[in-house]
Design brief:
Structural class: alpha/beta
CATH class: Alpha Beta
Number of domains: 1
Largest sheet: 6 strands, mixed
CATH architecture: 3-Layer(aba) Sandwich
Shape: globular
Bound molecules: adenosine-5'-triphosphate
Order of helices and strands: EEEHEEHEHHHEHEHEEH
Strand content: 25-35%
């Protein structure tokens, strides 16, 4: 498999206080990685550094072999817009725009695909995530789960190489969490590489690999293999992950 992302000797400090220390890992195309760890261990900082939302203090981040840690702000925004998708705990959709307009907006901004292709992608994504019927609704008129599904569609409109999520299910109830995770697993099966930060072991059990951060360094990794919708297998995955997390003192 091709290496999509490579993190080399990554350090990050805030005002001289070290937060990330010598982080090294590689992400292959098609992986689904969950980053876990105690509160304050540096999970979000790591996600922001590898996705270009923040700058490492030192070290390299290679996207398909190209070092993105040294790009100018303008070049980095271009990479983020065209090659990366982002979802957060809250959807951050724009008020006064419909669900559909929120989804297509980054498509028009990136200017890679034609207007027709963008609208077609939006239709496919809304259909896939089950929000087509609310496409013309104002964002105040839909549920939290529907908003998060719209945020996923928006993140995927430019067909990014990689989708980053910071606690993407953190504000959802268990039903909506399951729906969002089903969508993420489907997108991943279709080829999009995913990296999320989560506190939720059930959510992390959907990933193919779990990275555990402790005090700003990688403590351990667990390979779970690709998620499949098979109940007995999934109970086993959850059990394996839970006992591994216990060993990490989580
Ligand atoms: N912009 C910043 N300026 C100063 N310190 C920061 C900044 N961002 C994060 N930190 C510090 O870096 C450390 C790691 O924070 P980070 O948010 O990455 O941890 P986390 O593992 O994601 O935590 P949580 O699970 O609570 O969200 C914390 O001590 C935090 O206070």
């Amino acid at each position: 498999m091709k290496i999509l992302l490579e993190v080399k000797n990554l350090y990050k400090s805030f005002e001289g206080t070290p937060v990330l220390k010598d982080i090294n890992f590689r992400v292959e195309e098609g992986e689904f990685i969950a980053i876990m760890g105690q509160s304050g261990s540096g999970k979000s900082t790591l996600l922001y550094c590898i996705s270009g939302m923040d700058r490492p203090t030192s070290g390299n981040i290679l996207l398909y072999g190209k070092d993105i840690s040294k790009l100018s702000d303008k070049q980095m925004s271009e990479v983020r817009l065209k090659q990366m998708g982002f979802i957060f705990q809250h959807s951050y959709l724009l008020k006064n725009l419909s669900i559909r307009d929120n989804i297509v907006l980054p498509g028009f901004k990136a200017n890679i695909l034609s207007r027709e292709q963008i609208n077609q992608n939006a239709n496919i994504l809304m259909e896939k995530t089950g929000i087509h019927s609310v496409g013309d609704h104002d964002i105040k008129m839909v549920s939290g789960g529907q908003l998060q599904r719209a945020a996923i569609c928006r993140a995927l409109i430019n067909q990014p190489d990689i989708l980053f999520g910071d606690e993407p299910t953190g504000a959802l109830n268990s039903g909506a969490t399951k729906e969002v995770m089903n969508i993420l697993n489907e997108i991943n099966h279709q080829g999009t590489t995913i990296i999320i930060v989560t506190h939720d072991a059930k959510v992390a059990s959907r990933a193919s690999r779990v990275i555990f951060l402790g005090d700003g360094a990688i403590h351990d990794e667990l390979n779970l293999g690709k998620y499949e919708e098979i109940e007995e297998k999934n109970l086993y995955r959850e059990k394996k992950l839970t006992s591994w997390l216990e060993r990490q003192d989580f």
